[in-house]
Amino acid sequence: MTNPSNLSGFKVLVLVSPYTGCRVTPIDKGFVDPCSGEFFNDFGHTPQTDKFLPSLNHRVKGAELEIILSDLKLELVENCEQIKDWQGIKDIAYRSNENELIYVLSCGDIIWGISSEVGFTITHLLSGMGSLDLISKSGSKNVDLNTLSHNGETPLSIAVKMKKKVSIDYLIEHGAVTSEICNSDFCSPSFEELIDQFYPEYEIED
């Protein structure tokens, strides 16, 4: 296991969520957790689920950082049998290794059926990475590009919040719904609303 004392305190503060152990990506109006799809505002709070990113005083404590990182494997996946559940996907997301992800996505349909406790799927994860090589894998598998997580996130909403233009353009071109999508508890805002709030500089190519 990685010794937290060897890590840059600032990087851990900004990039690691204690709820999923994944890197949290800073955006203009807060942070997005790519493993759960949850958005945290500038204060590190997500009003929908009332979660908080830990405070500075808590995050710099070695013991707590050790807990955050203790269940994350840092070794690259070498065979498909290593990926059995969302924890395995979370490990890969933490490492952010594109070549490793391309390998894992070739492991078969079972990979595409894995989701987190809140319904966050592989397609959500790939949308937030902004790589055409990766997001196009979703299209080639004919997966639902409009799948809605339990907390109201679609692959398109993740792509917008993380400002991944490549993913946005691909998803829209291949059938992502741009109107509001709802489940029994949450709604994902329309594409126009998401752009206005999170990515106003986005420009649609002619």
UniProtKB/TrEMBL annotation:
Coiled coil: none annotated. Keywords: ANK repeat. ANK repeats lie at residues 151-176. Gene3D superfamilies: Ankyrin repeat-containing domain (1.25.40.20). It comes from the Bacteria. This is Ankyrin repeat domain-containing protein. It comes from Echinimonas agarilytica. The lineage of its organism: Bacteria, Pseudomonadati, Pseudomonadota, Gammaproteobacteria, Alteromonadales.
